[in-house]
UniProtKB/TrEMBL annotation:
UniProt GO BP: thiamine biosynthetic process; thiamine diphosphate biosynthetic process
Domain of life (superkingdom): Bacteria
Binding sites annotated in the UniProt record for Mg(2+) 4: 7, 21, 52
Secretion signal span: none
Annotated keywords: ATP-binding, Kinase, Magnesium, Metal-binding, Nucleotide-binding, Thiamine biosynthesis, Transferase
Entry protein name: Thiamine-monophosphate kinase
Domain PurM-like C-terminal: 129-274
CDD domains assigned: ThiL
Residues at which Mg(2+) 3 binds: 7, 52, 191
């Protein structure tokens, strides 16, 4: 309702409640300027926050940005960054409502996103119950595959490898699937930021249940498979433990009729933790302090 130009923005809350999420991105930790341009970093920074809002069953409405930059940062990189913020927000009809900038030794980005529930109850992590099904919407494994290619210094000479690298630089969350999942009766949901096994572990812990996944139900995308072949890696490991794709994982009643965007990959059971049929998985996902 009122954007940049004053001391604060004015954001409408037609539902009477506001869903709020915030994330911090540090140069060298969450992105590298020699790997990603400013536009990609802007899209990624906005996407990971907008996905959190969608994972609550809400529609994103606005973001505000705190930005620390070195004095010698090229102005063109900063212009690309802000264009990335705006264009990612535009994909969901949200706005960049304002922010703050300060001098810093490296690029630091703090994004806070807001959203509207449109009268719906928020979908929490704690609602999973035995007998329900676990489903995923969106891409898995792209970000991990692209990171592995960049880290290995592999020349990206084919369209499939280029697509995997693009998936690391710029995620594509299925925003619309969050509110849709809420309407379909999802009892628990989150976005996959630290790896599917790690994040479903939060659902299992919050609900006091176990989650069993069937690896036969996972579709490994061609770019992920191509990257794995190039590096001699197991693509399913990236699908299960790679973070930053910002897919959505949700728990639904067993008799729900899901649209094709949602793929059932497992079920909720009595017990605790996350198990994968027939596979030993060592690394479970990303943990900043492990």
């Amino acid at each position: 309702m009122l954007g940049p130009g004053d001391d604060a923005a004015l954001v409408g809350a037609p539902d009477g409640r506001v869903v709020v999420s915030t994330d911090l991105l540090l140069e060298g930790r969450h992105f590298r300027r020699d790997w990603s341009g400013g536009y990609d970093v802007g899209r990624k920074a906005a996407a990971q926050n907008l996905a959190d809002v969608a994972a609550m069953g809400a529609t994103p409405t606005a973001i505000v940005v705190g930005l620390g930059v070195p004095a010698d940062l090229p102005l063109s990189w900063l212009d690309e960054l802000t264009d990335g913020f705006a264009d990612e927000c535009a994909t969901v009809g949200a706005s960049v409502a304002g922010g703050d900038v300060t001098r810093c030794d490296l690029v630091v980005i703090g994004v806070t996103a807001m959203g509207d529930l449109a009268g719906r109850a928020p979908v929490l992590r704690s609602g999973a119950r035995p007998g329900q099904v676990v489903a995923v919407a969106g891409r898995l494994g792209y970000a991990a595959a692209g990171w592995a290619l960049l880290e290995a210094g592999v020349p990206v000479e084919t369209p499939l490898l280029a697509e995997a690298v693009a998936g690391h630089r710029r995620p594509s969350p299925p925003y619309a699937m969050g509110p849709l999942a809420a309407e379909l009766g999802a009892s628990a949901m989150l976005d996959v930021s630290d790896g599917l096994l790690q994040d479903l572990g939060h659902v299992a812990e919050a609900g006091g249940v176990g989650v069993e996944l069937d690896p036969r139900e996972f579709a490994v995308a061609e770019p992920v498979a191509a990257a794995a072949k190039e590096l001699g890696a197991d693509p399913l490991e990236w699908v299960l433990t790679g973070g930053e794709d910002h897919a959505l994982a949700a728990v639904f009643p067993a008799d729900v009729r899901l649209p094709p965007e949602w793929q059932v990959v497992g079920r909720v059971v009595e017990g605790e933790g996350v198990m994968v049929y027939g596979r030993e998985i060592g690394r479970r996902g990303w943990d900043h302090f492990r």
